[in-house]
């Protein structure tokens, strides 16, 4: 690698840091070698975290003259990689101030924090560290290239990219919703109840299904014969199952795909298609268009 820490001195934002890293490392391989990158950027060591109740940590000082990244032993490889990226973010973002004794200690909840209340300085630092980790492990230019090669969204593609980028399925679903050109949402389900929901709020309508409540009736989640690890077909659903539908307008189209997972989890992809964008294929269902696209990709 050619990038050095001095190359990153002109910015302190997660987006700016990742942009500069990619500028100096345009051929960064996938999965991104996050441990090698951390050591290249003057992290001294990546060691085991032995403090109970936390996923990761960083030993440093206010001047960032040194840094040791700590990771909980026994976690999956995608979680380990994301934790290293998170702690590297703390190390590189100059205005991140460690807790007492020069330590950052980050819990599982910290590594899932996507927003913080006004004035919550610590929460903001965790949000920025998570954003840095997501951006460096799943560089948006590389994601957009993948979407150009495979423009039709699907859970199969989410899982394929998760493996290629070395991240969890949930992390990839979050990035997939943010950067895919289609308007998508992903719903994480646990024991039949709605959990985390990821979508771009500017493009995808508000999801009315409440967190902690059962998956709405009418969802493909209840279809008989679903097998763990095998995504369902993509099929159209009544839009008001998932989104608020104005009664004075023609309903848009919501399509859904479900994949049951281990330990009571499931992942649901929602695909919103506005009626304003309909074309000469308006008489085709979403499922028919999806199947036609898949057939074209197989021929190509």
Unreliable parts: 277-283, 296-300
Strand adjacency order, main sheet? 6-5-9-8-7
- Give the biggest beta sheet: 5 strands, antiparallel
Structural class: alpha+beta
Tally of extended strands? 9
Q: What value does the Rg take, in angstroms?
A: 21 Å
* Count, helices: 8
- Distance between the ends: 35 Å
What is the H/E string?
Answer: HHEEEHEHHHHEEEEEH
Shape: elongated
Which bin fits the share of residues in helices? 25-40%
Strand residue percentage: 15-25%
- What average pLDDT do the residues reach? 90
Give a short overview.
32% of the residues lie in helices and 18% in strands. The protein is an alpha+beta fold and 300 residues long.
How is this structure best described in words?
A five-stranded antiparallel beta sheet has the order 6-5-9-8-7. Strands 1-3-2-4 form a four-stranded mixed beta sheet, covered by helices on one side. It is an alpha+beta fold and 300 residues long. Strand 2 and strand 3 form a beta hairpin. It is elongated, with a radius of gyration of 21 Å. It starts with 13 loop residues before the first helix and ends with a helix. Helix content is 32%, strand content 18%.
């Amino acid at each position: 690698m050619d990038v050095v820490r001095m190359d990153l001195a002109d910015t302190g934002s997660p987006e700016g840091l990742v942009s500069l890293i990619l500028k100096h490392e345009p051929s960064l391989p996938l999965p991104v070698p996050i441990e090698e990158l951390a050591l290249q950027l003057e992290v001294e060591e990546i060691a085991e975290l032995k403090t109970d109740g936390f996923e990761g940590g960083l030993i440093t000082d206010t001047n960032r003259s040194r840094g040791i990244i700590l990771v909980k032993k026994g976690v999956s490889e995608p979680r380990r990689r994301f934790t290293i990226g998170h702690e590297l973010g703390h190390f590189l973002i100059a205005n991140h101030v460690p807790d007492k004794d020069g330590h950052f200690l980050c819990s599982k909840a910290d590594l899932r924090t996507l927003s913080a209340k006004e004035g919550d300085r610590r929460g903001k630092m965790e949000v920025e560290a998570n954003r840095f980790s997501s951006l460096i492990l799943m560089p948006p230019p590389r994601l957009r290239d993948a979407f150009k090669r495979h423009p039709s969204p699907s859970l199969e593609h989410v899982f394929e990219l998760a493996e290629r980028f070395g991240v969890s399925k949930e992390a990839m679903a979050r990035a997939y919703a943010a950067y895919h050109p289609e308007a998508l949402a992903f719903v994480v389900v646990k024991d039949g109840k709605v959990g985390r929901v990821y979508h771009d709020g500017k493009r995808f309508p508000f999801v009315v299904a409440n967190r902690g409540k059962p998956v709405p009736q009418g969802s493909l989640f209840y279809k008989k014969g679903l097998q763990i690890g095998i995504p369902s077909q993509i099929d159209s659903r009544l839009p008001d199952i998932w989104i608020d539908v104005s009664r004075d307008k023609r309903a848009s189209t919501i399509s859904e795909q479900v994949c049951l997972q281990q330990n009571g989890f499931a992942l649901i992809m929602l695909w919103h298609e506005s009626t304003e964008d309909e074309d000469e294929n308006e008489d085709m269902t979403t499922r028919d268009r999806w199947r036609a696209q898949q057939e074209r990709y197989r021929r190509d």
